[in-house]
Design brief:
Keywords: Fatty acid biosynthesis, Fatty acid metabolism, Isomerase, Lipid biosynthesis, Lipid metabolism, Membrane, Prostaglandin biosynthesis, Prostaglandin metabolism, Transmembrane, Transmembrane helix
Strand order of the largest sheet: 2-1-3-4
Strand content: 5-15%
Number of helices: 11
CATH class of the largest domain: Mainly Alpha
Radius of gyration: 18 Å
Number of domains: 2
Number of strands: 4
Distance between the termini: 37 Å
Structural class: alpha+beta
Protein name: Prostaglandin E synthase 2
Membrane topology: Single-pass membrane protein
Shape: globular
Helix content: 40-55%
GO molecular function, one term: prostaglandin-E synthase activity
CATH topology of the largest domain: Glutathione S-transferase Yfyf (Class Pi), Chain A, domain 2
Pfam family, one: GST_C_2
CATH architecture of the largest domain: Up-down Bundle
Order of helices and strands: HEHEEEHHHHHHHHH
């Protein structure tokens, strides 16, 4: 696929439909936050980022919703990553129905119903992988020096045991096998197309890409690319989404 074709797949909205101010309250490594960022980056919607301290959450004390992501659009609070993507899509494409295509809606739901559930058991699969993940989280998160030191080891230990519970809850006996199966299931859904949306990514493409983006450079993500056919699609998505449209606060 020619690079120019991928570049032309971006869909910036009309300037008159762009929000005046967009602020994302997030954790850098959160897959749900990365879903929202994939949407904003792909559509070239400028946004500011407030990195939330996951221990104190002082940055979102003003909100009754004590989770991330929170997207504030021209003063209006939007919550839940999937609802945020649908809301923003309706704002910038008012002439189109959101998730009108049955296939797109099915795979958009699949991300929340299945894909995200195989991630934690993989990135916290072993104590060493849990430490690897929390090293990334603490380096990119909003932590004080002391919090960074203690959270890396305490958080890794906690999430290692949480992942054990998730494995049992979702009946996952082979973590990597479940991840590889999910990746291949997605590639099969593409059915030879560059994107599920055809020549351009749709909301399902952006949701899958968003939740996978934070694990790309972890052991789980590297193993996934090496052992499945998802690598080429991920490269196409990287090019299609392009650079971050984040602006400094």
């Amino acid at each position: 696929m020619a690079l120019v074709t991928v570049a032309e797949s971006k869909e910036p909205p009309s300037r008159d439909l762009l929000p005046k101010e967009v602020v994302l309250y997030q954790y850098e490594a959160c897959p749900f936050c990365n879903k929202v960022k994939a949407f904003l980056d792909y559509h070239d919607i400028p946004y500011k980022v407030v990195e939330v301290n996951p221990l104190s959450k002082k940055e979102i004390k003003w909100s009754e919703y004590q989770k991330v992501p929170i997207l504030v659009v021209d003063g209006e609070q939007l919550i839940n990553s999937s609802d945020i993507m649908k809301n923003m899509s309706s704002r910038i494409h008012p002439e189109s129905s959101v998730l009108a295509a049955e296939e797109e809606a099915k795979w958009f739901r699949w991300v929340d119903d299945h894909l995200v559930h195989v991630l934690s058991p993989n990135i916290y699969r072993t104590t060493s992988e849990a430490l690897e993940s929390f090293d990334y989280i603490t380096k990119n998160g909003n932590f004080t020096w002391l919090e960074r030191c203690t959270s890396k080891y305490a958080g890794a230990a906690i999430m290692y045991f949480v992942s054990m519970k998730l494995k049992k809850k979702y009946n996952i006996t082979d973590e990597r096998g479940a991840l590889y199966e999910a990746a291949e299931t997605w590639i099969k859904a593409l059915d030879g197309r560059d994107f599920l949306g055809g020549s351009r990514p749709n909301l399902a493409d952006l949701a899958v890409f968003g939740v996978l983006r934070p694990i790309r450079h972890l052991s789980a993500g590297k193993d996934m690319v090496q052992n499945t056919g998802i690598g080429e699609w991920l490269q196409r998505m990287e090019l299609a989404v392009g650079g971050s449209s984040r602006v400094e606060s």
